[in-house]
Amino acid sequence: MKRIIFFLVVFIFAGVAAAQMQGHGMGKMGKAGKAGCDNFERGAHFGRAHRPGNILRHSEALELTDGQIDKIKSIRLSHHEAMIDLRADLKKLELHLHNEMHSDSPDKNRALSINSDIAELKGRVSEMKMNHRFDIREILTVEQVKKLDKLKTKCPPMGRGKGGHGIRHQDGCCGR
Question: Which residues of 110-123 are buried (b: 16+ CB within 10 A; e: fewer)?
Answer without folding.
Answer: eeeebeebbeebee
